Amino acid sequence: MAERTSRRQRVDERHRRILDAARERADADGWAAVTTRRLADAIGYTQPVLYSHFPGGKAEIMLAVALEGFVELARRCRAALGPGPGRAAIEAVAAAYLDFGREHPAVYEAMFSEPLDTPFGQDGTRPELRAGFDTLAEAIGDDDGTATEVFWSALHGLGLLERTGRVRPEHRAERVAELAARFAPPSGTGTRPPD
Amino acid sequence: MAERTSRRQRVDERHRRILDAARERADADGWAAVTTRRLADAIGYTQPVLYSHFPGGKAEIMLAVALEGFVELARRCRAALGPGPGRAAIEAVAAAYLDFGREHPAVYEAMFSEPLDTPFGQDGTRPELRAGFDTLAEAIGDDDGTATEVFWSALHGLGLLERTGRVRPEHRAERVAELAARFAPPSGTGTRPPD
DNA sequence: GCTAGTTTCCTAGCACCGCTAGGCTAGGCT
DNA sequence: AGCCTAGCCTAGCGGTGCTAGGAAACTAGC
Description:
9 helices, homodimer, Tet_transcr_reg_TetR-rel_C_sf (chains A, B)
């Protein structure tokens, strides 16, 4: 019995090491640099071992990294969200969101750039994918969903355009402030953009 | 002389066929489906011929497709922009922008998902890359640039999240309306979101 | 201790990728 | 006629994701 537990532990630990190696390498050099051979090398085994953990191959590994990313992103946004809605809360959540995207570009890419067959529409969506969206909705005081979708889109676009150098890097704070001003709830401190 | 012109014409026409084949195949099946072998087959030549037109290989072909995309996207946005700022103009420009992204997903991807070493910051940016941005700025009546960057980010994010199925497809019109309401200029018809 | 069966892992190979070196052929020039 | 150049193709490099099949090690029953 202890024998079997030990075996299970070894398998689990290897599972973790695959995901950690994939995430770190991808965040450092992009998903193209994550190859099955390098990944196998990183964990001290050969390619086929990866397929015993992830039969779907590289795509399934990316999906697993993405799912963990959703949990982490939601956790960070939740932590940044203060007691109630308002511009400060929106800015804090936005900054947390963008920070995550900047720190883990490849995880973020796996989360959002791939079609990801699992449903995302608000009905059948898995709870871990839903938590981040709910936090964004709470930040801007939206209960319909449309405003949250637009707010989220703006965050998503901001992170991507910043990463690919399409917007002025030094104006990041102004953009976050502008975004918060545009999406502050009507009854908040103010709805007009600054300046 | 006519001989040389004819030769030049043949080269130019082949150049065009490469770009057209790449764009069509990519928009239909994604850039991963655009391989140098298939591309060479499509134009009736072999692989090395591609490299006489585009020494940088596939990356340079994608860049060329992207540059043409910038021109077309700017043209469409400009055409959609009415006489002056206002919610209707914003909605029209936003719809034109999103339509382009939906019709040419791979062109759009080449335009914005790649790092694209040519500068994008407002100083040394090539005019064809600048035209679309200027149109967006004009639509929302912004002259600073920050609001335009955020507006553009929202459009960018909307298109991408829509394509990857992260937002409810049937709410597209509501999102565009919401976006226009949030970014309508202060002196416009109204600055409050609808509903 | 010995054998049979299972689990675990690696070797070797497939088809495909982007890309390139080198040779063949056809045409213009001297 | 002979050479030179441009244009194109054949063949091949190293790398990719992925998989079939066999070797080795470990477990269980006697």
